[in-house]
Amino acid sequence: MTTTTSARDTRRATALGIGLRRGVLELKQFLRQKDTVIFTFSFPLLMTVLFGAIFQRKLPGTDVDFTQYFLAGMVATGVMGTTFVLLAVGIALERDDGTLKRLRAMPMPLSAYFIGKTVLVLVASIAQTVLLLVFGSLFFGLTMPATAGKWLTLGWVLLLGVIACTLLGVAMSAVPRSGRSAAAVVMPIFVVLQFISGVFFVFTELPGPVQAVGGVFPLKWLSQGLRSVFLPEELQRMEPAGSWDHPGIAIVLALWIVAGLVLSVATFRWQRARS
To answer: pTM for this one?
Structure first.
């Protein structure tokens, strides 16, 4: 029994060690793709500048600039871009060019591949979030959380959002028919979700049917959770429930984590179907 447990622990340690080394490799490969890096990190910044210039107004009945509301949604968008989009497109490309098939044939625990991808998106998400927060505080007056409770909320909301969007990105990578069509399939979904999730507009000002659809997806709840961190408490009245609804945020994101895991296991393939 002890020998069996020891062998199992050794395999886990080996998978973790190889996975972490793969994570370093994934980061190096990502940084070498300058066009991908520039788009991933500049898109939220450009949208912040554009919408900040267009919508120079106060939120209804408040002295809070709309940009404050918008910036919380852009942080959520940045997280989704560095998880869902990056993995959905990247894995589809690796499947198409045979990278996944070659990795599967190597004497490497298969879990190490996913550990490596997790390291990549986690580091990219943290970097994206820090960049947007610094940019927002310097140029748009974004106020950093003033209490430990707010920082704790920021931490668990981001963690659940990253996990959910990462798993959905892995599952989504099975949808494009080829690596070349991956961006064309994934990006429209990404853009539409921003419009219906209360990123570019106040969520409760959207038409009822749009709110109903947007409320299904994790980006809406991730954005709402981040608004609870950066906006004054009195603005929770502008949310659909009349409050920040932290339990609801946690439950919905947790459900998406479960759904993403099930979909990832059911749909992930190491090579194209026609192979």
So the answer is: 0.90
